[in-house]
Amino acid sequence: MAESTFADSVQTNARLLVTPAIIVTLGFALHRYVNNFLDSDQAIFQDERALGWDRNLRPQLEQHLSLTLWSTVFVVIVAVPLGIFLTRPKYRRLGGPVLAGTSREPIWPTGLVGSISHVAGVGVALVAPAELSDGIGIDIESQRWAPELEDQVPRPEEREWLDAGSTTERSAKLLALFSAKESVFKAFYPSVGRYFGFAAASLVPTSSGFAASLVEEIDDRYPATRSFNISCQWFGTTVMTWLVLPKTP
């Protein structure tokens, strides 16, 4: 009986993974086909004046495909396994609606921590059992001209990094820094329960995002000596940052 139950479980999990795997495969195939088509001598972009198409259509199409594919991969790697995990009898109690708090923050079901963000028709969410994480933050932003962030986001020690490079690079860096600090706020707000500014955290750029630490006393679990990592990834003109705080012993 035990062997039969185990075999049924394996078959069920396999079926749950087949469809996302097919979607990812077809997505990469479509991405390659479109790139080959756009590179071909017969591409309709050769007659763009007659068709009235914009020269920027190709990079916009590539960025859209790239973001779509990475979102699908994220779903396959994170969302599907998490869904399977939460359907196990032991964790079914974790289910329930996600409500909105007085400050429009998401109120997760008991036993879960998470974060959500959206921009330009793209939404993302990151969720984990509360027994595994102290807090989660995720943020997604579209590149834009936002000079007001110059005075709102950087700390003095962060400006040296922003000042290195061209004006275009500075704009992208500033947006990534803003997004990362939004993720910090989202990760700590549920436990802190009050507003705190961007100056509360100090960020140092790394190859994969930022190394961060709190420089204001907002959470006893995270003194200035305890750092945490923030991941950062660009998808064309869209930047996404996220962090998962490890569970405090």
Give a verbal description of the structure.
- With 249 residues, the chain is an alpha+beta fold.
- The chain has 2 domains: 2-86; 101-246, Alpha-Beta Complex (Ribosomal Protein L22, Chain A).
- The chain is 44% helix and 23% strand.
- It contains 6 helices and 9 strands.
- The strands form 3 sheets. It has a 5-stranded antiparallel sheet with strand order 5-9-8-7-6.
- A hairpin with a 5-residue loop joins strand 1 and strand 2.
- The protein is globular.
- The two termini are 39 Å apart.
Topology (SSEs and partners):
Layout: H1 2-39, H2 48-51, H3 57-86, E1 99-100, E2 106-107, E3 112-119, E4 122-129, E5 133-142, H4 149-152, H5 156-163, H6 167-192, E6 201-205, E7 209-214, E8 228-235, E9 238-246
Provide a brief overview of the structure.
By secondary structure, this protein is α+β, with helices and mostly antiparallel strands.
User: Radius of gyration, Cα only, in angstroms?
Assistant: 22 Å
CATH class of the largest domain: Alpha Beta
> Would you count the extended β strands for me?
9
Indicate the percent of residues in helices. Answer: 40-55%
Give the CA-CA distance, first to last residue.
Answer: 39 Å
Which residues form runs of ≥5 with pLDDT under 50?
none
CATH architecture of the largest domain: Alpha-Beta Complex
Query: How much β-strand is present in the residues?
Result: 15-25%
**How many structural domains can be distinguished in the coordinates?**
2
